[in-house]
Automatic annotation (TrEMBL):
Pfam entry (one): MlaE
GO molecular function: phospholipid transporter activity
Protein name: Phospholipid/cholesterol/gamma-HCH transport system permease protein
One Gene Ontology CC term in the entry: ATP-binding cassette (ABC) transporter complex
Organism, as annotated: Pontibacter ramchanderi
Amino acid sequence: MDLDKNKPGTASSRRRYVTTRRLDRIFVELANVYRFNARFFKEVWLPPYEFKEIIRQCYEIGVRSLPLISLTGFIIGIVFTNQSRPSLADFGATSLLPALISVAIIRAIGPLVTALIAAGRVGSAIGAELGSMRVTEQIDAMEVSATNPFKFLVVSRVLATTLMIPALTMFTTLVSLLGGYLNVHQNELTSLSVFFYQVFDAITFLDIIASSVKSVIFGYTIGMVGCYKGYNSSKGTEGVGKAANSSVVTAMFLIFIEELLIMQVINTIRAF
């Protein structure tokens, strides 16, 4: 009997990996993410439809985020206007300030800031809520009671974030423009009608479409990341904290990546 093959450190005693241990874990995680997303697109079309839960999540995600979104958007409009005025004043072009505010906020700042705030507030809440339900076995209890937990918990939340983030983005953009207008009116005495004429004259239909598409993608990303981290959490209360934290970090990272990719695509379309 050959005892060498059972000794620690020999090739037969070590676990075999396709590549390396770390790479195998990455590929397994990517496969799990793919299956989770595929299951969402499958479940979203199948009855029963949890309309009450979707409406409740829209209220929690959208309406309850309005105070924070309003304050942040208003401050961003004022701060951006104040920071941009000296640069334009050096060239005697302060009259272009409304157009600059419009392009910056509608194209980039509005969708990005709204998504980052929602990732911090909504993403962490979804991750912590589903994580606590997983570690306390409430999700398992729903499966035993013939309730589809994936449809009730995941589909409703992802749909709610996908629907509400674009609405919050529009609201943030409007509030930011109002903040910019108050600052411009205080310094240049520009009327409201002239300000918004210059605002809408500086943007195109492509800018509005791009902002809306980005908001939908950001909303889906926030909901999906929060649900995935929370739904698959483990290790008790420690896992709940990790799910909430990783939901925010991962969602923000993906939002910046998506912003970069979408910006490149839009700039390519705009070049034609």
